[in-house]
Amino acid sequence: MKTIDELLAEGVSGKRVFVRADLNVPLDGTTITDDGRIRAVEPTIRKLAEAGARVVVASHLGRPKGAPDPAFSLAPAAARLGELLGAEVAFASDTVGADAAATVAGLDAGQVAVLENLRFNAGETSKDDAERGAFADQLAGLADVYVGDGFGAVHRKHASVFDLPARLPHYAGLLIATEVGVLRKLTDDVARPYAVVLGGAKVSDKLGVIDHLLERADRILIGGGMAYTFLKAQGHEVGISLLQEDQVPVVTEYLQRAKDKGVEFVLPVDVLVSPEFPDLKGKTPAHPTTVAADGIPADQEGLDIGPETAKLYASKLADAATVFWNGPMGVFEHPDFAGGTKAVAQALLDSPAFTVVGGGDSAAAVRILGFDENAFGHISTGGGASLEYLEGKTLPGLAALEN
Predict the structure, then answer these.
(1) β-pair type (31-32, 27-28)
(2) What are phi and psi of 264, to 5 degrees?
(3) b/e map of 334-355 (b: 16 or more CB within 10 Å)?
(4) What is the average pLDDT across 308-333?
(5) Beta carbons within 10 angstroms of residue 255's beta carbon
């Protein structure tokens, strides 16, 4: 995989450099609520601009249906990128249309433009190779060189991620090079003990990575909504908690495999429950109750790990040499159910381990809960991409950069 440093050594002054970024940031209307992904790709864009490139930045945002939708415009992300760069960033109101062509043509050396949401064109996400290829051909007409730096999208076989690199000289940006380097530390020559903390809503989203980690991790700690499927597999009442009943047999098998392989599987010993899901807008007090994990009332919903579980998990992370964490421990967006996620984040900070926060909601939680991002070993920008890498899957975007 060639890197941006090699590209810069070859010279980029005056060249149109297409940067596939991941500007898929959460929005409240037109207000960005977490700009972490924009800040993560800014160093690559800045480096290219300072070297005299005409930088064309492209990304998706959300899941529009292959047609323009103002709710998913990248205009707020373009404005925020300009603030971070301290320079005006041009914005094209389309992806490969007349305005994109004019905007790119108008760039001088060292200037930056952002194209409108790639997913406003159906060719970006099409499963038809010819349709995707046709869109990639149009994108290629806007550039001389391709730099892949949207790590959060490299697990997608999309036109700008997979097909476009084949049409242009291609290089990995600073962010992708960093992300891959970190993930290799979680898969090759891992420093032990190796502890993994998995949370989030659905156990089905994590089955592949659990399956893979049962061969590699020393201990696996489970929290979040997915924990209740594990508790159900142990025969416990889970009330009205989030439950994937169809996954109970698989989870039961994983618990047995962990026991057979000597992998320590750690589940909550207590949880915070409430008769209803909390109000995340007004954040009115929810008045949760702490109950034993095997004593959840039938009319209550588990919404966070309890204080004893938080202490237990901290103790299981204290002597680890490597920790990977993906997924919050509860509904961290509400202050009454943020304690478990805060406790895990603090345990990572207190640990001497190499710590990796695996993107998605856990990365957002670190920022929202006020932790210093720089205190962690690494905060990934790609939750899904990180998990698929750890599953041992081939990621289309990385494969395209390696070819």
Answers:
(1) antiparallel
(2) -75, 115
(3) bebbbbbbbbbbebbeebebbb
(4) 96
(5) 16
- Which structure tokens are listed for 247? 């996954």
Question: Which 3 state secondary structure label does DSSP give 323?
Answer: strand
Which of 109, 25, 36 lies closest to 61, judged by CA? 25
Q: Are strands 219-222 and 264-266 parallel, antiparallel or unpaired?
A: parallel
Instruction: Give the global pTM.
Output: 0.88
Q: Smallest Cα–Cα separation from 55: which of 9, 114, 95? A: 114
Q: Half-sphere exposure (CA, 13 Å, Cβ side) for 286?
A: 28
* Beta bridge pairs of residue 272: 290, 304
Q: Which residues contact 207 (CB under 8 A, 6 or more apart)?
A: 247, 250, 254
Distance CA 194, CA 173 (A): 29
Q: Is 18 helix (H, G, I), strand (E, B) or coil?
A: strand
For residue 5, what are the contacts with CB-CB under 8 A and spacing of at least 6? none
d(CA 343, CA 49): 41
Is the pLDDT at 304 greater than 80, yes or no? yes
Active site residues: 37, 202, 360, 384
CA 236, distance to chain mean position in Å, is 32
From CA 123, how far away is CA 119, in angstroms rounded?
Answer: 8
- For residue 183, give both structure tokens: 């993930």
How far is 113 from 187, CA to CA, in rounded Å?
37
Write out 16-74 in H/E/C secondary structure: EEEEECCCCCCEECCEECCCHHHHHHHHHHHHHHHCCCEEEEECCCCCCCCCCCHHHCC
Query: What token pair was written down for 153?
Result: 């999208």
Q: Is the pLDDT of residue 374 over 90?
A: no
Q: Concatenated DSSP letters for 285-306? A: ----EEEETT---TT-EEEEE-
Which of 292, 356, 311, 313 minimizes the C-alpha distance to 219? 313
Backbone CA torsion sign across 140, 143, 144, 150? negative
Judged against a pLDDT cut of 90, whether residue 223 lies above it is answered with yes
pLDDT at residue 127 is higher than 90: yes
Spatial separation of the C-alpha atoms in residues 90 and 12, rounded to whole Å: 19
**CA 97, CA 61: separation in Å to the nearest integer?**
18
Q: How many CB atoms are located within 10 Å of the residue 368 CB?
A: 16
